[in-house]
Write a structure and sequence with these properties.
It contains 10 helices and 12 strands. It is of the alpha+beta class. The protein has 2 domains: 177 residues, no CATH class; 102 residues, Pdz3 Domain (Roll), CATH 2.30.42.10. α3 crosses α6 and α7 runs antiparallel to α8.
Length: 383
């Protein structure tokens, strides 16, 4: 039975998470614009009529909209505020359209960069406070007829690398394999005292994930040795920052690799999702944490850890998605400004409008496709 508490936890966890990520993204745009003394008319989290708003000393209106899905930074425009021209000059503020093109590019780029910084920061906090665990990639079982069996893996083999990527930690191995269904992987192993190279092709399969949804992944058909060989890792401040940075690079690499496979037709793109999938995952994880049979402080701690982990991953996704060269997204604006920097003049207004119309069509198509993916994923949880 679904309780009112579970519904509230589900909704609030999602809204808090998405609001925080959007706020940090837009804060990147805002702070960089103010660094270049660009006058910002409005900073809004959410759309529609504001639930509340206030005006800061520099004239920016800070607003929380009724529809808490997204946000924006609106720059001052003289044409729309003729009465403010005098104060605009007096305050030594600038129009966004009048600052050098490289500064405009930095303002646009700052949103995704802030998302990446947030990812590093979250992973650094988690590693600094909790540490992490390394599980040695030592083969304990080989499923008969599996890719590992066909490739010649034996019990006791220690898997060192795949495609020259260190996967001695099973967590890294699992992530590397998951996105490479039907793709040959050159694998380096240690068998007794000898080092060998084997080629393995993971097979695609569907399985339930941590929240019960059906997802496609790739497997090679091995089980780990028993007992597990686990090493607890602890980090000082600088090591935690390095850990966060490495997690960011790994996440960007995995995201880019998967999108590349989708573009090449090697994946169907069903692992991609939009706001519905984000809400489902964050809400389900929060509800599961709050319903654990443990004291409330422990449940709240687990809830915080899970939402922070999801938030770090979503922050990467938000940054990467906004860098896509589609008009209306940050990446599309960067393309326009890049043209202006090279050509010495901005793209004509007519061509920009055509680009924005094309971008709108692309985004609408993506929205429909991703929503269908989301519906399929959510329905699998209850199937």
């Amino acid at each position: 039975m679904i309780s009112l508490l579970n519904i509230l936890v589900f909704i609030l966890s999602f809204l808090m998470l998405i609001t925080f990520l959007v706020y940090f993204h837009e804060l990147g745009h805002y702070l960089t614009a103010r660094l270049f003394k660009v006058k910002v008319e409005k900073f809004s989290i959410g759309f529609g009529k504001p639930l509340f708003q206030w005006k800061s000393k520099n004239g920016t209106i800070w607003s929380l909209g009724r529809i808490p899905l997204g946000g924006y930074v609106k720059f001052f425009e003289i044409d729309n505020q003729k009465n403010d021209v005098v104060s605009h000059i007096k305050n030594d503020d600038k129009l966004f359209t009048t600052i050098p093109v490289f500064q405009r590019m930095l303002v646009v780029l700052a949103g995704p960069i802030f998302n990446f910084i947030l990812t590093i920061f979250i992973f650094a906090i988690l590693s600094f406070t909790l540490g992490s665990y390394k599980v040695e990639s030592i083969v304990g079982t080989v499923v008969e007829g599996s890719p590992a069996d066909k490739a010649g893996f034996l019990v006791g083999d220690k898997i060192l690398s795949m495609d020259n990527v260190n996967v001695s930690d099973f967590n890294d191995l699992r992530r590397h394999v998951a996105l490479r269904g039907d793709t040959d992987i050159l694998t380096s192993i240690q068998r007794n005292e000898a080092k060998l190279k084997l080629t393995i092709m993971p097979e695609r399969m569907f399985e339930k994930d941590l929240i019960g949804g059906i997802s496609e992944t790739a497997k090679i058909g091995i089980g780990l040795s028993e007992p597990l060989v686990i090493t607890r890792l602890e980090y000082n401040f600088f090591e935690a920052i390095a850990y966060g940075y490495n997690e960011l690079i790994s996440s960007i690499s995995m995201t880019g690799y998967y999108i590349g496979r989708v573009i090449k037709g090697e994946e169907d793109g069903k692992q991609l999702g939009s706001i519905i999938k984000i809400a489902t995952i964050s809400g389900k994880v929060a509800v599961d944490a709050i319903n654990e049979n443990t004291p409330m402080p422990i449940r709240l701690r687990e809830l915080s850890i899970r939402l922070l982990t999801i938030g770090a991953s979503l922050s990467v996704a938000l940054g990467v998605a906004n860098l896509m060269p589609i008009p209306m997204l940050d990446g599309g604006h960067l393309v326009y400004y890049g043209y202006e920097a090279i050509a010495g003049r901005p793209l004509s207004q007519k061509k920009q409008e055509i680009g924005f119309q094309l971008g709108l069509a692309i985004l609408f198509t993506l929205f429909v496709v991703l929503t269908l993916n989301d519906i399929s994923y959510v329905s699998s949880i209850f199937s």
